[in-house]
Amino acid sequence: NAGVTQTPKFRILKIGQSMTLQCTQDMNHNYMYWYRQDPGMGLKLIYYSVGAGITDKGEVPNGYNVSRSTTEDFPLRLELAAPSQTSVYFCASGTGLDLSGEKLFFGSGTQLSVL
Amino acid sequence: LAKTTQPISMDSYEGQEVNITCSHNNIATNDYITWYQQFPSQGPRFIIQGYKTKVTNEVASLFIPADRKSSTLSLPRVSLSDTAVYYCLVGPLPYTGGGNKLTFGTGTQLKVEL
Questions:
Q1: What are the chain B neighbours of A36 within 8 Å (beta carbons)?
Q2: Mean pLDDT for chain A?
Q3: How far apart are CA A86 and CA A59, in angstroms?
Q4: Closest to B106 (Cβ–Cβ): which among A42, A56, A107?
């Protein structure tokens, strides 16, 4: 199994451009998440999804949009890129239904720079 | 969500046992305690999770006192490869409703030297 796959690994955007960060998981997990991590900081939750067709905001959703049309895919959309969105973005997935505990599986991240 | 406090950094030597303590004074009844490890340029990796008392797996132990206001991650006989940032998270499990809004703080940077 590949686990959680994120593309691209690196991207440079100009202010005002838009892009979609792709995330795919092959573990049939119901829950998926998008986090951002600024240098030297912890991870902040942007959006999450509890299943296909269901999404909800996390701690820092402004400037981002998500969709969840399938169990496997959870893309993150930046509509008007701003320098404040320069960060490393991590996608994660989890079963969300394990009564004995819950562990998240993370992708390798996308490093985004907005100049 | 319960706020967590952990040391910013710790230093150790190879072969030593490392204990990282996390304070979470306002932990709720249905909150679990989870630890993740993160290497540079990688996503966090699950280490261990517990609710109360002691949990042990192949890589670490988690000690949780009866009042659950703190927890200690114990790494036995660390090696250079254990140099990483360790995050303590406290919150309800997703199945309890409301999704998962666990927050990663700044973590503890563990540096292991020869």
A1: none
A2: 92
A3: 17
A4: A42
